[in-house]
């Protein structure tokens, strides 16, 4: 079997939001029984069929880079993480639906990964406000995933999901909300599975099919 082409997708977010559990679910379709803290970065691989069911279908490796979630703004911390940000093709931004701060910190994570954190010790988010222009010309596909949906009481879900819905709009990204301990949230044919597949297709297209803006040409 010929070696598969691959793309690199960063999985970013605060410590404790469930990134490792999410990556395990995405790559193995199984619940991670005993998640632990990620030190540095952990890489797992998902096999994805680009444009599945069409004449253009092709199988790719999706490398999911689960980056440790220390939020410290110290230069040394960011310099250590910076090595993982090289040659990235897509970003999954993960936040805990029960933790508002983890949602706000997604702006910091995205700017850091995109090398646009021009003021690393500054406050990027204050009461939900930030400079939208910093994301206006971003060409890296983004996906926002909210975890721990099961921990929100039914009576509070509409309120919480309304509060977090602005994230997808701000990042020009699709949004998935789920419980990483229940694979049914990513069941084949579900709206979440469709969004995920669409995101991976977009990452592959940016890496292997698109050059010079809108000009399309495939290259190996």
UniProtKB/TrEMBL annotation:
Keyword Cytoplasm appears in the UniProt entry: no
Originating organism: Poecile atricapillus
SUPFAM superfamilies: P-loop containing nucleoside triphosphate hydrolases
Presence of the UniProt keyword GTP-binding in the record: yes
Family, similarity comment: Belongs to the small GTPase superfamily. Rab family.
InterPro entries: P-loop_NTPase (IPR027417), Sigma_54_int_dom_ATP-bd_1 (IPR025662)
CDD domains for this protein: RabL3
The entry's keywords: GTP-binding, Nucleotide-binding
Superkingdom of source: Eukaryota
Role this protein plays: Required for KRAS signaling regulation and modulation of cell proliferation. Regulator of KRAS prenylation, and probably prenylation of other small GTPases. Required for lymphocyte development and function. Not required for myeloid cell development.
Matching PROSITE patterns: RAB, SIGMA54_INTERACT_1
Protein name: Rab-like protein 3
One function term, GO molecular function aspect: GTP binding
Gene: Rabl3
PANTHER family, per the entry: DRAB5-RELATED
